[in-house]
Amino acid sequence: MCRHLAYLGPDEPLGRLLVDPPHGLYRQSWAPRRQRHGTVNADGFGVGWYAAGDPAPARYRRTGPIWADPSFADLARVVRTGALLAAVRDATLPGADGEAAAAPFAAGRWLFSHNGAVAGWPQSAAPLVPGLPPVDLLSMEARTDSAFVWALVLHRLRADDDAGRALAETVREVAEAAPASRLNLLLTDGETIAATTWGDTLWYLAEPGRGTVVASEPYDDDPRWQEVPDRTLLAADRTGVRLTALKDQAPAPKEPCT
Fold it and tell me: 114 forms bridges with which residues in the sheet?
């Protein structure tokens, strides 16, 4: 499993969102409070962020634990952004893919992370392979279940599915092929966030005047954090959050950031 977080709002140092909170993603790498599978997220980490005037995000990824990288501490202190996606990783299986296996994965303006595991990987994914063009398989950044799920999502995005549909249909497709999979997906283009809950926790904080945070678990004890029910599609922007049950696609009212 993993822990991940996405943010949209006013420019903030990376550290204010990832390192400074008492239970931030930094601490979740060794002491998550709500993680249901696995205990330590020390198999790599990454952060992707957007700079004004450039639609393509920058990324910083490493193979080791986030706490063992002093360069990240410097970067997090001075780099500011109004949109980011970050993750700490607990590998499904051992592998030699290094930082290429660490989220966020990226293509164009998109950043993506997978918190979970494809059950029975890699054998269970075989029925899904014919649905991908060969070039998509050959372009996978890593030989992991998360990279494969990203390839499925990206194929739908390139076919002009919107972010929510791309995630929802990918979750259904993978869950049908591998029913015991855990598929909490997180996707942003720097202007919107889409996410799914399928087997693990997800929370959001719609903070008045500050935008929206979507995360595997709260990074502090602010009572305004809201838990997302399992089997749900979340869509968010800087003004609010919308929840849709994946089982019936019936939208819930949007909660404004006011």
Answer: 185
